[in-house]
Design goal:
With 452 residues, this protein is an alpha/beta fold. The protein folds into 3 domains: 5-93, Rossmann fold (3-Layer(aba) Sandwich); 102-304, Mur-like, catalytic domain (UDP-N-acetylmuramoyl-L-alanine:D-glutamate ligase, 3-Layer(aba) Sandwich), CATH 3.40.1190; 313-446, Alpha-Beta Complex (Protein-Tyrosine Phosphatase, Chain A), CATH 3.90.190. It is 32% helix and 22% strand. It is built from 15 helices and 20 strands. Strands 7-8-6-9-10-11-12-13-14 form a 9-stranded mixed beta sheet, sandwiched between helices. Strands 15-16-20-17-18-19 form a 6-stranded mixed beta sheet, with helices on both faces. The protein has a 5-stranded parallel beta sheet with strand order 3-2-1-4-5, with helices on both faces. Helix 8 (220-226) links the parallel strand 10 and strand 11. Helix 5 (117-130) packs across helix 9 (275-288). The N and C termini lie far apart (67 Å).
Length: 452
């Protein structure tokens, strides 16, 4: 029996992209997905059109035909079925599969971190395009690398999650960026921050001295750990930077290399709100500097970048109340940063969501007391957050739907205040993903009245 097939495990967006790649490269390919339902029906139909055999339960049916398995990132490596797979064939992830089949001549800039990844990825793309390059944002941002392995783009700016880094073997970007590492997804890592931290660092493990590793200079632990890796290190930090990289000096974003310092843009000309977005901008500038052809165009692209959907997205203003969609704020640290993004403004915070992570919400309380007029609780996390607010005598209400949360937020807010959806939790209790949650928030806001 010929055992040269590739088994794609999981028919999500990444799995389907890997199947397309395999078929395009004339590989023998099979797909296993644990069930067929309305949400993935279109993907199954595409498999049928491509003539790719599949099964709708995870069995060993295709094992004798395959030498390699390609895992979708949402499926834990520790699951019983994946342990079975590994006994019969080599296992890699979709990111690694795409990299191994990548057409020559492409430059990969990979971005990981707990928060800020998507904004940094999109900003790097915009800065590169402003220099006249062709570039695409790919990876964990929702556009699998497998769909771009042979495309026309010169640069692939790849958002990389810890889940994807679990299954790399040879993945080697020319530039890697780590925005920050704070506790998140610890349910996936047996509640060990150390395991999560080491997984994030894998982004640099195959890089050599020709590569560039861009790190958050505020994180001493990250800097120390990265010293074990081969690529040259460049830092970004808001102030006090002595090494190579990007910082803020006298109100300007500045890039420094050796003794020379180059002004890029006045901080006040940056459209993105918040201290954390300033850090994202510093990271992006550091990543693209070797490819800059025109400093003037770099400054303009940086100033023009509006941000991304679901990340501190200003939806509209009604009766002097600004509604902001930060549905991508799926962990505590992200919401902490969102609460500091509007200095001098009081916030009505819509908080809560899926409770699978069992996150500690207590670090939010000081900022809530300082910056929030009130809190609207929504989702499975409500029973754990409410006692924290009661103890600190913070005004809050419990709600059971996004419509109720938006309505109560609108009634609670005064002119000049902000109604902010920044849940500090995943969305899976009520929605399929944070995008659906963010769209629902916006829809309910638009139902309130005429936007300005």
């Amino acid at each position: 029996m010929n055992r040269d097939g590739v088994l794609i495990i999981g028919l999500g967006v990444s799995g389907l992209a890997a199947a397309r790649l395999a078929r395009k490269k004339k590989m023998t390919v099979y797909v296993t997905e644990h069930r067929r339902h309305a949400a993935n029906e279109e993907r199954f139909r595409e498999l049928e059109q491509l003539g790719i055999p599949f099964e709708t339960e995870n069995t060993q049916r295709f094992f004798p035909l395959c030498r390699q398995a390609v895992l979708s990132p949402g499926i834990p490596v520790s699951s019983p079925y994946i342990r079975e797979v590994k006994e019969h064939m080599a296992l890699i992830g979709e990111l690694e599969f795409a990299f191994q089949n990548m057409a020559p001549g492409k430059t990969i800039i990979a971005v990981t971190g707990t928060n800020g990844k998507s904004t940094t990825v999109r900003l790097i793309q915009a800065l590169l395009e402003g220099q006249g390059y062709t570039a695409a944002s790919v990876g964990n941002i929702g556009l699998p690398l497998s769909d771009y392995f042979d495309g026309p783009e010169e640069f692939l700016v790849c958002e990389v999650s810890s889940y994807q880094l679990e299954t790399i073997v040879t993945f080697k970007p020319q530039t890697a960026v780590i925005t920050n590492i704070t506790p998140d997804h610890l349910d996936r890592y047996e509640n060990s921050f150390e395991r999560y931290f080491k997984t994030k660092l894998r982004i640099a493990e195959n890089m050599d001295s020709s590569g560039r590793l861009v790190l958050n200079g505020e994180d001493d632990r990250l800097k120390k750990a990265a010293s074990d890796y081969a690529p040259r290190t460049f830092l970004f930090r808001l102030e006090g930077l002595k090494e190579q990289g990007t910082t803020v000096t006298k109100g300007y974003i500045c890039y420094q290399d050796g003794s020379a310092q180059e002004k890029i843009l006045r901080v006040k000309d940056l459209a993105l709100p918040g201290r954390h977005n300033l850090e994202n901008a510093l990271a992006a500038v550091t990543a693209v500097m070797p490819f800059v052809r025109s400093q003037k165009r770099l400054s303009q692209s940086l100033a023009d970048f509006p941000g991304i959907e679901h990340r501190l997205e200003q939806v509209c203003e009604i009766n002097g109340i600004l509604f902001v969609n930060d549905s991508k704020g799926t962990n505590v640290d992200s919401t902490r940063k969102a609460l500091t993004a509007f200095p001098g403004k009081k916030v009505v915070l819509i908080l809560g969501g899926d409770d699978a992570k069992k996150s500690d919400f207590s670090p939010l309380i000081p900022l809530i007391r300082k910056n929030c007029a009130s809190v609207i609780l929504l989702g499975e996390t409500t029973p754990r957050i409410a006692p924290l607010l009661e103890k600190e005598k913070v005004a809050f209400v419990k709600t059971g739907s996004m419509k109720e949360a938006v309505d109560r937020g609108f009634k609670a807010a005064r002119k000049g205040e902000i109604v902010l959806l920044s849940p500090a939790a995943a969305s899976f209790d009520l929605y399929s993903d944070f995008e659906e949650r963010g769209r629902d928030f916006k829809e309910k806001v638009f139902q309130l009245g005429e936007c300005v």
